[in-house]
Structure formats: C-alpha cells, structure tokens
User: Which sequence fits this backbone?
C-alpha cells in the first residue's frame, strides 16, 4: 500500500533581512579581530614585538609556516 501525505504543499522559504545598522558593528569587530590575529601570526617577533619573550612566536610557529610567513 502506498502512503501519501495529504496537505504537503511546499511553502516558500523566507530569508530574514538583516539591516546594515545591525551588521556593521559586528563586521568591524570581526575585522579588528582578524587584523589582530594576522599581526600575532605574521609579525609578533623581533623589533615589532609587543610582548616580551618568544611565547607567542612559539605558539603560532606552525601556523606562521602554513600561511607562508618566514620566521627563521
């Protein structure tokens, strides 16, 4: 016996609209976090170092090579 679904009409999916005023602060925050991450992976060593020691360098060492930044 075949079973049929009565009333199973496809309804259009509504996509929510996000106003730019609500999206912009989060986009700026995400962009600043990305710039901070790129700084720590790419430039946190030597003369441009903000933190003393090699802790940050050693923590991001493999990621630095993976992204193509030279470090030694």
Assistant:
């Amino acid at each position: 016996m075949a079973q049929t679904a009565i009333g199973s009409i496809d309804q259009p999916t509504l996509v929510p609209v996000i106003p730019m005023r609500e999206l912009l602060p989060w986009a700026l925050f995400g962009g600043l976090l990305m710039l901070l991450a790129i700084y720590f992976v790419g430039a946190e060593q030597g003369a441009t170092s903000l933190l003393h020691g090699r802790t940050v360098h050693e923590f991001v060492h493999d990621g630095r090579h993976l992204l193509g930044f030279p470090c030694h």
Observations:
- The helical segments are 20-42, 55-59, 61-66.
- The chain is about 45% helix and 0% strand.
- The mean pLDDT is 81.
- The first helix runs from residue 20 to 42.
